[in-house]
Amino acid sequence: QQQVKQSPQSLIVQKGGISIINCAYENTAFDYFPWYQQFPGKGPALLIAIRPDVSEKKEGRFTISFNKSAKQFSLHIMDSQPGDSATYFCAARGSGNTGKLIFGQGTTLQVKP
Amino acid sequence: KAGVTQTPRYLIKTRGQQVTLSCSPISGHRSVSWYQQTPGQGLQFLFEYFSETQRNKGNFPGRFSGRQFSNSRSEMNVSTLELGDSALYLCASSQQGNQETQYFGPGTRLLVL
């Protein structure tokens, strides 16, 4: 129940295309869902986050779509750029007084010029 | 504000030794969480400290321990190192730890020989 399943493991997209990464969870106590971007040699950096009372959140080229009934959420990267090439992690955190994040396994995105 | 800093950045140890890693959170942040990142297991939560108290703990053996000082700086210790402890150890800080952005440091890469 503590797992977050992420797919695909790797993704290759042409420049200008749309990158889509999916995550699914089981624990309905999760109520905060961030996406992190990690470049080689760096720590993860928060990209965008959503709470389950919202079905979609958009920040620039990045959009999270959230389906509470299906317990799924996804990251869409519009107009993908070579600079977006990185590893992306979805995560979930339970309600209450906790900083504990449960991460998906990660998706390595390569955007070809 | 300066970001999360971790020292040392790289470390090589041999089996059976112990190691101490340090994390300085962003000024004003009181919550520090530690994660282990490996290619096989991904990002796994170790523990979280808030106001010098361990607030959450992941599923790691007792060889992994930590503490937090009054200035919010945190250390984690791994005793009796095993080859499988080779990983990138990341710490993340946030103001309160719950429902807020966690900012990650660059990590300490530990190699156990």
Structural commentary:
The complex is a heterodimer of chains A (about 110) and B (about 110). The mean pLDDT of chain A is about 95. In chain A, the strands form two sheets. In chain A, strands 2, 4, 5, 9, 10 and 11 form a six-stranded mixed β-sheet that branches. Chain A has a five-stranded antiparallel β-sheet with strand order 1-3-8-7-6, with no helix packed on it. Helix content of chain A is about 0%, strand content about 55%. The relative contact order of chain A is 0.34. Chain A is built from no helices and eleven strands. Helix content of chain B is about 0%, strand content about 55%. Chain B has strands at about 5, 10-15, 20-25, 30-40, 40-50, 55, 65-70, 75-80, 85-95, 105, 110. In chain B, strands 2, 4, 5, 6, 9, 10 and 11 form a seven-stranded mixed β-sheet that branches. In chain B, strands 1-3-8-7 form a four-stranded antiparallel β-sheet, with no helix packed on it. Chain B starts with a strand and ends with a strand. The mean pLDDT of chain B is about 95. The interface of A and B includes residues 43, 46 and 102 of A.
Keywords summarizing the entry:
heterodimer; A: 113 residues; mainly beta; six-stranded mixed β-sheet; five-stranded antiparallel β-sheet; 11 strands; 57% strand; globular; B: 113 residues; seven-stranded mixed β-sheet
Task: Summarize this structure briefly.
The complex is a heterodimer of chains A (113) and B (113). With 113 residues, chain A is mainly beta.
Helix content of chain A: under 10%
Secondary structure tally: strands of chain A? 11
Please indicate the percent range of residues of chain B in DSSP E strands (runs of 2 or more). Answer: over 45%
**Average of the residue pLDDT scores of chain B:** 93
Summed up, the helix count of chain B is 0
Q: What is the C-alpha radius of gyration of chain A, as a whole number of Å?
A: 14 Å
Structural class of chain B: mainly beta
How would you classify the helix and strand content of chain A by structural class? mainly beta
Radius of gyration of chain B from CA coordinates: 13 Å
Biggest sheet layout of chain A: 6 strands, mixed
SSE succession of chain B: EEEEEEEEEEE
Low-confidence stretches of chain B: none
